[in-house]
Amino acid sequence: MSLLLGTTITVSSNHWMMAWTGLEINTLAIIPLISKSHHPRAIEAATKYFLTQAAASTLLLFSSMTNAWFTGQWDITQLTHPTSCLLLTTAVSIKLGLTPFHFWFPEVLQGSSKTTGLLLATLMKFPPTALLILTSPSLNPNLLTTMAIASAALGGWMGLNQTQIRKVLAFSSISHLGWMTIILLYNPKLTLLTFYLYCLMTSAIFLALNTTKITNLATMMTAWTKIPPLTTTLMLALLSLAGLPPLTGFLPKWLIIQELTKQEMTPVATTIALLSLLGLFFYLRLAYCATITLPPNSSNHMKHWQTNKSVHILITTLISLSILLLPLSPMIFTTT
């Protein structure tokens, strides 16, 4: 309830103090969920998350106070002072985990449970994204473009040598944030669409991983015997998150590249499209491990008999949407 309350306060507020209050409620609400398992890694993750978010919130409050000092405005949309704009971009980047402030996110996600990791990767990113969209006319386009390309590059590059699935999904999140940020100034609605589709695909993958108890590549290789249909659709959901046509994840990348080309930013569009190939490589490796291959050596993990374990209807719906939503894109376009 506190998570929903904090998110609602931040998204619906037009005063900086209310937005800061909502972010603080969010931070204090998620920390008990991260440290719930009482494992040393979970406590470490909760501590890292608290310190990072507290620093970002302080910077955000300082930015809004500086703007109010010079302009007399506490309205979120009236952020006009250059120093305040720079400080706000830094604060929101830390909260989101954009490069070069990404270091905390993979570690925190790895130390959390899958359900908490899902909240960290989706719901907790919504308030900072909303603040970025509200202040987008005041932000520096060159700085945002540089950070976006760096996030796409680092998310793809660092994901290549990971064996832990949660860390792979963390670097995937950083890469997707780069795609959302690069189009923010030119088409904020497209940023929101990208965020919604990313949340849809990530939720489907996290819930499927939670059902099959997959934590790393080794367990992914031996999990296909549990629920074969779910593992097969998990492979397709991973490829959709990679942005492979004709799956749903291709839609935001297609529209973003189209919009960047309209803005005469063809070199930027080419660069970020090529960088997405790095991410595609490790998604293909995950998909390959999920369904097509057996471990190349004797695994320490026990192979499971196929069970009649029922799959929740929510997982089925989310995975279906994350795979088959592309044909509905004309309808989405006409409504936006």
TrEMBL record:
Its EC number is 7.1.1.2. Its main location: mitochondrion. Core subunit of the mitochondrial membrane respiratory chain NADH dehydrogenase (Complex I) which catalyzes electron transfer from NADH through the respiratory chain, using ubiquinone as an electron acceptor. Essential for the catalytic activity and assembly of complex I. The chain crosses the membrane at residues 15-34, 46-66, 86-105, 143-161, 168-186, 192-209, 230-248, 268-290, 311-333. Pfam families: NADH_dehy_S2_C (PF06444), Proton_antipo_M (PF00361). GO terms for cellular component: mitochondrial inner membrane. Keywords: Electron transport, Membrane, Mitochondrion, Mitochondrion inner membrane, NAD, Respiratory chain, Translocase, Transmembrane, Transmembrane helix, Transport, Ubiquinone. It is found in: Mitochondrion inner membrane. It catalyses: a ubiquinone + NADH + 5 H(+)(in) = a ubiquinol + NAD(+) + 4 H(+)(out). It is an enzyme of class 7 (translocase). It is a multi-pass membrane protein. This is NADH-ubiquinone oxidoreductase chain 2. GO terms for molecular function: NADH dehydrogenase (ubiquinone) activity. Residues 13-276 form the NADH:quinone oxidoreductase/Mrp antiporter transmembrane domain. Residues 280-333 form the NADH dehydrogenase subunit 2 C-terminal domain. Belongs to the complex I subunit 2 family. GO terms for biological process: mitochondrial electron transport, NADH to ubiquinone.
